[in-house]
Amino acid sequence: MKIKNVTIAGGGVLGSQIAWQTAFKGFNVIVYDAFEEGIQNCQKYHQRYAELFIASKGSSAAEIEKTFSRLTYTTNLKEAVQDADLVSESVPENLDIKKSFYKELAQWAPERTIFTTNSSTMLPSHYAKETGRPGKFLALHFSNPVWDANVGEVMKHPGTEQKYFDLVVNFAQDIGMVPIPINKEQPGYVLNSLLVPFLSAAQNLWFNHVSDFKSIDKTWMISTGAKSGPFGILDLVGMQTVYNITMMDAKRTNNPVLFERAEKIKTEFIDKGRMGISTGQGFYSYPNPEYKDPDFLNR
Ligand code: NAD
After folding, report:
1. 21-54 confidence digits (pLDDT tens)
2. Could you give the domains of the chain?
3. Is 192 in the pocket of ligand 1 (CB under 6 A)?
4. Does the beta carbon of 35 sit less than 6 angstroms from any atom of ligand 1?
5. Is the pLDDT of residue 1 over 90?
6. Residue 20 backbone dihedrals phi, psi, to 5 degrees
7. Angle in degrees, 0-180, between the axes of helices 61-69 and 13-24, rounded to the nearest 10
8. Is this structure's pTM higher than 0.85?
């Protein structure tokens, strides 16, 4: 089976990027969003990505024109999937929304269509039943922005057939991702299984006044050659997400220190509008954070 026609469900932050990248790489792409506003936002994102690709990736006007010619947009799910070889789903991170989306999708998609979910925190088995085709369902998880952080984490659930897993690994490669095969369900995939505890350890050092955040970042950057340290990464992730993850962990473990740490993120950052890169201020100030200064690591 050759994948040619791809439907992206959900035209938000990630869906719009996956759609753009997939069309750029030569596939026919239909963006489906449940809301007209979602479609309009996605089209605005695509104008921005076109400018970005020309300005910073050296794409030609002809390549951009071809990319647009491969993109269509609709709020009609039946039309969106009637000739789809693969559906990549990026609807909101909410179990009820995911379940009802897959139930509806199962009604309209041809039998051959493979379904992939981009969920960051849920496992495919949480809604495999609703897809009506668990063997052809698995996760293909992207990172933001998909063209720079280009790992494609391909993860099975217990019912995924190997043949479709292999097909999606190849597809991920065809759209410019480096495929990361994940053979069994793992909350957080590979990346967040590493990143979440790492960021938590860094926050503990800061919260307990063991060291200041710049020194912690310097230690990491000098010792590993990384371009940023944990606090630079926290600014990229955004303080709302940092707070949500810390609260989730605090509730799961009933650990009072985590509740206090979440509270500090709220009062020192969220309440002051210091949400991270998106608002120009987090631990560092943007667009020129101190850790990007060549002298940062020399003092
Ligand atoms: P988002 O809120 O930016 O976009 C969601 C889109 O889905 C919106 O355009 C909305 O109109 C649309 N939508 C709402 N209900 C729908 C429905 N029933 N059917 C179809 N479309 C519907 O969200 P996002 O950040 O793009 O996240 C989407 C998924 O991608 C989530 O599962 C998330 O975990 C995953 N993801 C996000 C990131 C990230 O950095 N934002 C990274 C990796 C994975």
Report:
1. 999 999 999 999 999 999 999 999 999 999 999 9
2. 5-182 (3.40.50.720), 196-298 (1.10.1040.10)
3. no
4. yes
5. no
6. -60, -50
7. 110
8. yes
